[in-house]
Design goal:
Length: 489
């Protein structure tokens, strides 16, 4: 058995990668796109059946390539998205409500103060529509079949990992891992169990929720087109990336520059409660030990580059942004704030909107592109400052991954503006790598310490133009204040 498979069930695509444990490398991959629907402004839905069938398809592809030498499958997935299904048939009873969906914003805004306080204290999260609990509540209120099945004791509600595990094991295992559970807003991250009082508030009984297991646990046996194979090792995508980046000791952190930007900072066995708007979450539970993390996110990072390309049409490809940014010595006084759908941590303001400031008659598209790239790094710097305030630890090195981490200008500016080295690994698929490692740990093929030895660095960006970057950051903060002003038309 020389291979494990990492199944990465992301928001835009489902991918499976065959990982060779001895060689320490991915040897084969398969991918299927996943469609999202936007039935009303702010709503985002997906078809859980499509997710399952495409997962089975890509797994089949990798299994065929491996010719029977696979020890197990590790799963990583988009977090918070919820699926409700019939326990007897495995059929979803409504569209999956995706993490980006804002349909429960009002509900969350109006949550009683005592519950908001308890949610923060027990789950480490804020009262935001982003997390699963209010989405499950919404389905119980609006999908008649959900109520019927609930009364009959046949309802299941869970995140994407739990649905895939249920389907792949033919209904034999209804379980999730601690990292996914920690994003539901129902899970006490200190006691590692669902919280009775919060469940009561949301009207979500324990019976409809998956059993919670460790990240390196056994999740049963999958049947993939007649091939029986172990499911072992599960983690949410950001936590899997932290493991894939080998940020497995206290004080280490990673930033993923994808559609959004996600900072995760390992706080060891201590759960640090954030006073500055970050989230506390479980990093993983491996070898019986629970590790915690502080998390901050910027909703639009790479998607701002997509906006330049597809909305403003001033780029033909995302990578062209690098060439344009370095064609000018600075952004010519232009600052940008990517608050297209509000601002996430540390502001949590859904009414804030995007901002482009400092335009003059001399402004060119190169200045605007540079300002947009700078804004991504400035958003990350703001999160890093919060993290230092909360933990008292100054991050000396940022491990980077995600599509936009290919951009050398962005990575260099990130180093400059945060006065920290930015370390880019050779293996860019950190999320899938994390799932492969978790599976290998679960199958006793490697230990968590070995992950550190396996990480290979491709390039380190060392800070040099710190003063100039500081000025850029100060201008960004001024523009951000304006974005938070909520102009009425
Ligand atoms: P996700 O996993 O969230 O779908 P990826 O990690 O695949 O995202 O990254 C894709 C994002 O990265 C896109 O938004 C794209 O605009 C951005 N991106 C890709 N390459 C570059 C680049 N060279 N410079 C800037 N942004 C880039």
């Amino acid at each position: 058995m020389k291979y494990v498979i990492a199944l990465d069930a992301g928001t835009t695509s489902i991918r499976a990668f065959l990982y060779d444990i001895e060689k320490g490398a991915f040897v084969h991959g398969a991918q299927q796109e996943v469609a999202s629907k936007y039935p009303f402004p702010g709503w985002v839905e997906q078809d859980a059946n499509e997710i399952y069938f495409k997962a089975a398809y890509v797994l089949n592809d990798c299994l065929a390539y491996a010719k029977g030498k696979v020890a197990g499958i590790g799963i990583t997935n988009q977090r918070e998205t919820v699926v409700l299904w019939d326990k007897t048939t495995g059929e979803p009873i409504c569209p999956a409500i995706v993490w980006q969906c804002r349909r429960t914003s009002e509900f969350c805004k109006n949550m009683p103060k005592e519950i908001v306080r308890r949610v923060k204290e027990r789950t480490g999260l804020t009262n935001d529509a982003y997390f699963s609990a209010s989405k499950i509540r919404w389905a119980l209120d609006h999908v008649p079949l959900a109520r019927t099945l609930l009364k009959e004791g046949k309802l299941c509600a869970g995140t994407i990992d739990s649905y895939l595990i249920f389907k792949l094991t033919e209904g034999n295992v209804f379980a999730t891992d601690v990292t996914n559970a920690s994003r539901t807003m129902l899970f006490d991250i200190h006691f590692c169990d669902y919280d009775e009082e919060i469940m009561r508030f949301f009207g979500i009984p324990r019976e409809i929720l998956p059993e919670v297991r460790a990240s390196d646990a056994d999740f049963g046996t999958a049947n993939i087109g007649g091939t029986k194979i172990a499911l072992a090792g599960v983690a949410g995508d950001q936590q899997a990336a932290l493991i894939g980046q080998a940020a497995v000791t206290e004080g280490e952190g990673k930033i993923t520059y994808g559609t959004g930007l996600f900072l995760l900072f390992h706080t060891g066995g201590k759960c640090i409660s954030s006073e500055s708007g970050l989230l506390s979450t479980i990093a993983y539970q491996v070898g019986g030990e629970t590790a915690y993390a502080l998390e901050g996110s910027v909703f639009h990072a790479g998607s701002s580059i997509q906006w330049l390309r597809d909305g403003l049409e001033i780029l033909s490809t995302s990578s062209e942004s690098e060439r344009l940014a370095i064609s000018v010595p600075d952004a010519g006084g232009v600052s940008f704030v990517p608050a297209f759908t509000g601002l996430g941590a540390p502001h949590w303001d859904s009414e804030a909107r995007g901002m482009l400031t400092g335009l003059t008659r001399g402004t060119t598209r190169a200045h605007i592109v540079r300002a947009v790239l700078e804004s991504i790094a400035c958003g990350a710097r703001e999160l890093l400052d919060c993290m230092t305030k909360d933990s008292g630890i100054l991050l000396k090195e940022i491990k980077c991954d995600g599509g936009a981490s290919q951009n050398n200008f962005l990575m260099q500016f990130q180093a400059d503006v945060s006065s920290a080295n930015v370390n880019r690994p050779k293996e860019r698929e950190s999320t899938a790598l994390g799932a492969a490692y978790l599976c290998a740990c679960a199958k006793d093929m490697m230990s968590i310490d070995e992950i550190v030895r396996r990480r290979e660095c491709e390039r380190v960006f060392v800070p040099h133009e710190k003063e100039k970057a500081k000025q850029v950051y100060n201008s960004y903060l001024v523009a951000e204040k304006r974005a938070l002003m909520h102009f009425e038309n």
